[in-house]
Sequence to fold (455 residues):
Amino acid sequence: MTDELIAKKDLLTLVGISYGQLYRWKRKGLIPEEWFIRKSTFTGQETFFPRGKVLVRIEKILQLKEDASLDALAELLSVHPLQVALSGAALVSRNIVTAASLELFRRQAGELPTLTFAQILAVFLLETLLRSGEISREEGEMVLGLLLEQAEVCRDGACEVMVLRKLGVSTCCLLAGATAVLVESGTKIVARLPLAQYIEQLKLLLSEGE
Amino acid sequence: MNEETRPDMTINGSGEVGGGQYRDITINGSGVINGEVNCRRLTINGSGRVNGLVTGGAVTIHGAGKLDRLQQVDALHIHGAGTIQDDSSVKELQVDGTASFQHSITAEGVEIHGALTVHGDCTAEHFTARGGFAIDGLLNADTIEIILHGDCRAREIGGSTIRAALPKHVAGLDKLLHALTNHRHTLTADTIEGDDIQLEQTTAKVVRGKRIVLGAGCNIDLVEYSESFEASKEAQVQAQTKVGG
Fold:
């Protein structure tokens, strides 16, 4: 999980933005506070960023800012849920989830005319897990159940979904505010998804088709 | 509840009341409010304390005020002394006396004529100082304009346009007073980063920007610029480099 760091001035040269822009984006919350890492160097304190994350984020901002205001962008890139209500058919036709994962959702939640953001997120995570091939359908159903039940915890995005397996028996959990997870040697962590990242992906997918 | 139909609350003398939704709250004398407050106007003449979140219109402190936290407040005017305990955000902050934020403050506009202390970060679109300030964290604003009337410091300063200059006319009596009291007209920071930077009387380890102009009294260890750099003869610069394209 450790990401290579990039110094602020190298970042600016690399992506061709100015200090003014960077500080503006910081003020608007487009670049999360925790990505600004202060380290001491021979010239004093300097700021570094997790290279991979910040480059992806800046590319996204530069690409989106053509047709969205900074405030709209901030809303899009934040972990706050969007106000959406989409039908299952629309989600499938826009390729956000497949009919197969939606079917699993229907079995648990029943037939709903529209899905809320939290529900779409749950199906989207299920889809991601199933597509990765790391978990089985049954495990998928279990994760989905957990996410729907704990929708409130998932709201702020500061948690991770984890799927564990031991001797063919699986379970899943939500980590809220955990920094490290240590499991017993016979247990295998099958999948671990940081929610914030998927909330962001989903928001972009949802906003694209509008 | 409609703002207009809410009750007013006035404390004359000394009193303690609970929070709630009000139209205008006035404390004349000494008052304490326990609980969250939402109001159109909160005025403290004398000494006031709010133990709880304040949201709503305009907050004015004429004497001494101690507030827990402000959110979605249109204007905070401090004419006397104000202490704010927690991270707060207001639209306009005006300090004519002394203000002390124990954590961070976010505003659209900040105007200082007195003295501002921030123990966290100070974030604004426009930051204008004609007094002194001490910011322990980052001062981040699109335009930063500092007329050096006092001792101004921040750990880091970042924005688009950053200007620090001595006042145009320092009157004779002022000069004498300042000489006698050893009053400083300086800006001190670890790093200053922006697009257009013009500084006087500034001490910093690093100044980075597109266009940098350094005037008298500057003492900078390292200057990094991408477009242009000028320094007065009365500025001391240890090292300078042109970076990027």
User: Anything to note?
Assistant: The radius of gyration of chain B is 21 Å.
